[in-house]
């Protein structure tokens, strides 16, 4: 993608800043972020930064493409304040898309979540039935339905991406996220500092860990191809938390044992296993993840060497 004007909401956050910086090499990029989950110091100097909420009335939506990543992005955030979660994730989404539509933007890509599949160790295709067990999941499902509305009623090309466990490490743009960072980042930081990483229950839960650089390339490709509908972004492979701890110890030449604790999240809503089926996306565009788990953890651990 080049020579476009682009808006990235949530563009100072973890995935958003990686996306915005990549796009800014060949495009004019505007970022909207209120700094709650983002850090503007992650952004390249040539990016137009707007310290604003997605609920604002005059957003910079007169662009060619909108990437909508702004969200309250965890179970805990929504349980603390369900009304605010719905306002930001649902009303904010509608607000951005409506302003973009009125300004003539016809292409948008937004973040959904793989959590709506629930716990599945086998690859999950988009055709599966999904359910809202948490306010966070409900808000992302509402986005998908509103996206259908904008597509069907106004003819927008609007694609939702169900991201699977995205990571980069504290050496990248995850450092400010703390307890909301991916477990790979948290485990690596603990182990590098001689602290036992805390694993829930027996540590056998699994995730489809996807490096942020693959997520960025997939997200951009979806926009370049004007896709519509919902697609998975993942690797099709999953690994247990115990395996991740072992791999990090191997990379850092350490021997820090994990501490197993009771899971504080109710079993009825906790997603214990995830794995992506990306065949639908690959039938549309030429994209595949390029960073396997070994290389990805090596990149995370290099920060500490």
Structural summary, described in words:
48% of the residues are buried. Helix 3 (82-102) packs parallel to helix 4, helix 5 (183-192) packs across helix 7 (241-252) and helix 7 packs across helix 9. Strand 5 (107-111), helix 4 (135-154) and strand 6 form a beta-alpha-beta unit. It is built from 9 helices and 13 strands. It has a 7-stranded parallel sheet, sandwiched between helices. It has a two-stranded parallel ribbon with strand order 7-10. It has a two-stranded parallel sheet with strand order 8-13. It has 2 domains: 5-166 and 211-236 and 276-282, NAD(P)-binding Rossmann-like Domain (Rossmann fold, 3-Layer(aba) Sandwich); 175-205 and 238-273 and 292-302, Alpha-Beta Complex (UDP-galactose 4-epimerase, domain 1). The mean pLDDT is 96. It is α/β, with parallel strands linked by helices and 305 residues long. The longest helix has 21 residues, at 82-102.
- Walk across the major sheet and give the strand order: 3-2-1-4-5-6-11
CATH class category of the largest domain = Alpha Beta
**What is the chain-wise order of helices and strands?**
EHEEEHHEHEEHEEEHEEHEHH
Low-confidence stretches: none
CATH homologous superfamily heading of the largest domain: NAD(P)-binding Rossmann-like Domain
Radius of gyration: 19 Å
Provide a short characterization of the protein structure:
The protein contains nine helices and 13 strands.
